[in-house]
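Chapter summary example.
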Amino acid sequence: MFRNNNIFQPAMNQHTYTTSKEFITKFEFDFMETYSFCRDYEPGFKPNGIEYILQADGSLHPTADHTHTFQRTDPQVAEFLQIMQTEIKEVPAWMCAPYYRDAVLFYDSKGTLITALNICLSCEYMETAPRAHINADAQTYVLLKQFFLSLGHHVEDIFSPLPAK
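The structure predicted for these 165 residues follows.
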C-alpha cells in the first residue's frame, strides 16, 4: 500500500537537515524494502530534474526495481541501522546535484508506507523527499555501497578506470 505519509516532508520551500542517526531512530517500522531505480529508462521516458523513488501521487518511480524485503528482525536490517548511525565526522559536499538510483522504503505492520530514503552513492547524498536532507558521514556511503553490493544490488562505480581503447 502506498500512502505518502512521509514524516520527513518539509513545509513548502523550506529545507530541513536531519542527521542519519536522528532519521533512523525517529520512527518505528516493521519491514523495509530496497529498490534500484533510474538505471534503465523505458523508451520515451524523460527524467524531469532530480528523480525520487516516490512520485507526487505516492506511486513508485516508473523505473523502480524492487530488490529485497527485510523484516525488522532480519540481520540485514540490524546492519543497515548500524550503518545509518555512523558518527558524523565529515559530511560530503560534492558540487553536483544528486542522481538517486537507490532507495529504502520503510513500512508499518499493516504495509503502510512510513517514509522513503533516496540515496545517491555517487554524490554521497540522501533525501527523504525534495528539500528533506539527511546528513551522513562520508564513511556511511562507503558502508551503504558495501551493504547494497553484499545483497547483489547493482551499484555504479564512478571511480573505476575508463576502458582501454
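To summarize the output: Residues 16-42+49-150 form one domain.
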